[in-house]
């Protein structure tokens, strides 16, 4: 269920962003809300799993359009004020699944009304139809099935079928081949490429995209497998497990807000890299201490450190991407950053599943007659539940995941810290001076 949603959201982010450049933000945003509403109704009225999957897929497609909120802010707000923007993800517990889908509709209605009344129609230059013809449709046609073919086995292998299965190998091969074809198309044939080459002509911007991807990998992997720790190792029930995730889920938005406000005030970005990445790496390393006897107070502090570091990174990376690209490319840079983060989240699931199941195969041995997957592991775990040796095995397996996250964060964090970032207040002054110069030149031409 989650795979269908995340896969749809990741694949359709870039096409939705491209269409919004052609038809304008407002029509694209309203279309996204309409699709999400239909998906919510389909999911809420589903009588079987197939209908529910269709509804979740439609919600995922529309969720890919959530990148438009960041692009709209990029269009409307100056760079120094964008630093305070934050997307807060809320979860609802203890409500029935049908009510969970119905509750989206009032929020969507309010959002649609606000967009219709308050957001102007930014009619693109040259008209909608000519701009639609300029869209890199061949790029979208190549990218969409290639991304699905690549990400589907990445998120499903090790869960529904083993990595050695043809169900994983064939789609992965086709997906990689499709991405190679996409690169050739973007480089030699596309007149208005979906992935602008100049977004990758500066090392600082490339590091920003890498940071977004690693953020997605680590946050998704940690949140997924902290559930395994709290429920499988410490024996907490579902409610307590959700409560014990609050150190991350609560501290990430707080840190992001504080970081954004500080960047807005000082204009400096680099300090946030030097605070966020080391704090994240140190806290991820301390996750090694999580075992069956670690005091809860220490666990809360360690996990809060992970959240505070991740929130600081999330906010600073968004601003860094916008500050290191041309203003006319800001929307494309934001869309690319969101794509990198979403792809990283899918990779986080894949890496975590592959490592977790392979390490547990070493610990428990292969289930007779089948590969060790997450499903077969659950069957093994039911037989050893309450066994201290089994809990210790899970602890040692999780430590491998924590170290992987720590190593990835250390490597990419070092690269991000070595980069030089412009002061956004200085950029604002330069932009104002350039606008005054352009206005003066225009006035001079009128007088002539």
UniProtKB/TrEMBL annotation:
Keyword Transmembrane helix attributed: yes
Keyword Membrane assigned: yes
Cellular location(s): Membrane
Domain Major facilitator superfamily (MFS) profile intervals: 1-425
InterPro entries (UniProt xref): MFS (IPR011701), MFS_dom (IPR020846), MFS_trans_sf (IPR036259)
GO cellular component: plasma membrane
Membrane topology: Multi-pass membrane protein
Chief site of localization: membrane
Name of the protein in question: Major facilitator superfamily domain-containing protein
Organism: Diplogelasinospora grovesii
Lineage, top ranks: Eukaryota, Fungi, Dikarya, Ascomycota, Pezizomycotina
């Amino acid at each position: 269920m989650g795979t269908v949603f995340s896969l749809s959201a990741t694949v359709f982010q870039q096409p939705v962003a491209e269409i919004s450049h052609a038809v304008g933000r407002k029509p694209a945003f309203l279309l996204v809300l309409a699709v999400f509403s239909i998906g919510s109704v389909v999911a809420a009225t589903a009588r079987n799993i197939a209908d529910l999957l269709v509804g979740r897929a439609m919600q995922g497609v529309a969720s890919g359009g959530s990148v438009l909120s960041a692009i709209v802010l990029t269009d409307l707000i100056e760079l120094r004020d964008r630093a305070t923007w934050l997307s807060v993800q809320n979860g609802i517990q203890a409500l029935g699944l049908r009510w969970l889908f119905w509750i989206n509709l009032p929020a969507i209605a309010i959002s649609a009304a606000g967009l219709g009344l308050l957001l102007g129609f930014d009619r693109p230059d040259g008209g909608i139809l000519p701009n639609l013809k300029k869209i890199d449709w061949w790029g979208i046609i190549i990218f969409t099935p290639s991304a699905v073919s690549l990400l589907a086995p990445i998120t499903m292998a090790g869960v529904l079928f083993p990595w050695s299965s043809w169900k994983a190998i064939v789609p992965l091969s086709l997906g990689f081949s499709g991405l190679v074809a996409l690169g050739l198309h973007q480089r030699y044939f596309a007149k208005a490429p979906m992935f602008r080459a100049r977004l990758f002509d500066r090392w600082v911007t490339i590091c920003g995209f890498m940071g977004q991807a690693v953020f997605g990998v680590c946050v998704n992997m940690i949140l997924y497998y902290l559930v395994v720790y709290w429920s499988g190792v410490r024996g907490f029930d579902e409610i307590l497990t959700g409560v014990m995730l609050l150190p991350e889920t609560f501290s990430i938005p707080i840190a992001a807000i504080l970081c954004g406000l500080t960047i807005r005030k000082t204009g400096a970005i680099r300090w946030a890299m030097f605070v966020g990445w080391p704090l994240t790496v140190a806290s991820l390393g301390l996750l090694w201490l999580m075992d069956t006897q670690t005091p809860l107070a220490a666990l809360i502090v360690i996990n809060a450190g992970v959240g505070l570091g991740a929130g600081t990174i999330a906010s600073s990376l968004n601003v860094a991407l916008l500050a290191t690209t041309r203003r006319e490319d800001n929307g494309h840079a934001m869309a690319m950053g969101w794509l990198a983060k979403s792809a990283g989240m899918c990779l986080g699931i894949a890496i975590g599943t592959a490592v977790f199941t392979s390490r547990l195969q070493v610990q428990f041995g292969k289930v007779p007659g089948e590969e060790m997957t997450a499903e077969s592991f659950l069957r093994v775990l039911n037989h050893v539940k309450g066994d201290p040796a089994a809990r210790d095995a899970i602890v040692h397996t999780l430590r491998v995941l924590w170290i992987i996250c720590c190593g990835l964060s250390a490597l990419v964090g070092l690269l991000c810290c070595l980069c030089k970032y412009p002061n956004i207040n200085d950029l604002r002054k330069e932009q104002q001076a350039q606008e005054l110069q352009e206005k003066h030149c225009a006035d001079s031409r009128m007088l002539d």
